[in-house]
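Input structure tokens:
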């Protein structure tokens, strides 16, 4: 049988050389359309049918390619975008696949355009006549910013696979749960005046001191109230990122801003967290009406968990003779779970993601191909 698509490494190269940075900063944010079209061409060559959908109000696209019809089957999901990079810290060209020291370097090699090279290579090597249930490949947009690709797909699709595998870099461990992420900014407005007479104004930094005290109490409360032993950090965490006042030293500071993030474990929902935060700020807001404003910054991502007792988790654990575990970073799983039970399992380490000289070690190549092949045989043949 002649191969219809380029070699594994040629495909890898072609995916890495297309810049697909997504960023909150509109001047560096890029469309992923060229990559989506390339993936579509590859999967079409393998007789997959293709659906490309524009994410409303953006220049970003999702692709769903599928082979086979009917119920069940398996969906592999990956995001097409990468984070931005700092050219002063990279020693290789981020958009040129470089092979050295038993490693493959490039932006997105593990996080996670490389996953598509693995999928294409494995699928091209399978006897497609043995496929009885559908294989789906989902390529999403904007995972690194607002996850709008996965959000949109989970709301609009009708497919019902038996299982979803997200190929984020987990060192080929099976991940059944992760923490969430939510970030806040509090703006505190005072009244300015000459510093020689503090009673001429309201100092926003002094109010911020009261707020921080209360937030630290909340931090202690959620730490002792919520516990999940499967996580290496077994409780929700809170971190203050910045505090900024705007006045010269001889003025009363009229605006102070605090930013902080919370990483909830699966038992702590956003709704509960919002209530706790509101309660925390209630007293101070009453004391200082119309001066304290809390808002979300970035896009909140819920924590995720599928029970270790779920039959799909058991099935995959048994297939590879390893136990599932947890991570502290976020994925698209909280959105894709609406479609099917979701696990995270992919080549390479998260330590290299969002890092200069991102690389995949050669030692992942064969095991990853074997794992993907086994999954397809188990769920689709
Ligand atoms: Zn990723």
């Amino acid at each position: 049988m002649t191969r219809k698509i380029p070699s594994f490494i040629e495909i890898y190269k072609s995916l890495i050389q297309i810049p697909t940075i997504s960023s909150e900063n509109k001047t560096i944010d890029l469309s992923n359309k060229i990559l989506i079209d390339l993936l579509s061409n590859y999967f079409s060559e393998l007789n997959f049918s293709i659906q490309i959908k524009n994410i409303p109000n953006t220049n970003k696209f999702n692709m769903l390619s599928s082979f086979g019809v009917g119920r069940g089957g398996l969906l592999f999901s990956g995001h097409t975008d990468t984070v931005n990079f700092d050219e002063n810290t990279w020693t290789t060209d981020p958009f040129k696949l470089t092979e050295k020291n038993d490693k493959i370097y490039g932006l997105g090699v593990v996080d996670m355009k490389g996953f598509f090279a693995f999928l294409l290579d494995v699928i091209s090597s399978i006897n497609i006549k043995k496929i009885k249930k559908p294989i789906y490949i989902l390529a999403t947009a904007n995972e690194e910013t607002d996850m709008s690709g996965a959000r949109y797909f989970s709301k609009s699709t009708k497919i019902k696979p038996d299982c979803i595998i997200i190929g984020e870099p987990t060192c080929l461990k099976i991940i059944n749960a992760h923490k969430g992420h939510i970030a806040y900014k509090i703006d505190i407005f005072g009244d300015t005046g000459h510093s020689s007479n503090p009673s001429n104004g309201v100092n926003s930094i002094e109010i911020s001191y009261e707020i921080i005290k209360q937030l630290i109490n909340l931090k202690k409360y959620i730490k002792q109230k919520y516990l999940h032993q499967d996580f290496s950090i077994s409780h929700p965490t809170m971190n203050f990122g910045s505090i900024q006042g705007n006045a010269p030293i001889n003025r009363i500071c009229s605006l102070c801003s605090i930013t902080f993030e919370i990483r909830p474990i699966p038992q702590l929902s956003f709704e509960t967290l919002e209530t706790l935060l509101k309660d925390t700020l209630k007293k101070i807001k009453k004391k200082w009406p119309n001066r304290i404003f809390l808002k979300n910054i970035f896009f909140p991502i819920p924590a995720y968990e599928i029970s270790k007792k779920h039959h799909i988790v058991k099935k995959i654990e048994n297939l590879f003779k390893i136990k599932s575990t947890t991570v502290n970073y976020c994925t698209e799983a909280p959105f894709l779970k609406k479609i099917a039970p979701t696990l995270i399992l992919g080549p390479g380490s998260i330590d290299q993601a969002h890092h200069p000289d991102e690389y995949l070690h050669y030692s992942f190549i064969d095991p990853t191909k074997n794992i993907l092949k086994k999954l397809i045989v188990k769920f689709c043949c």
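The mean pLDDT is 96. The longest strand covers residues 292-301.
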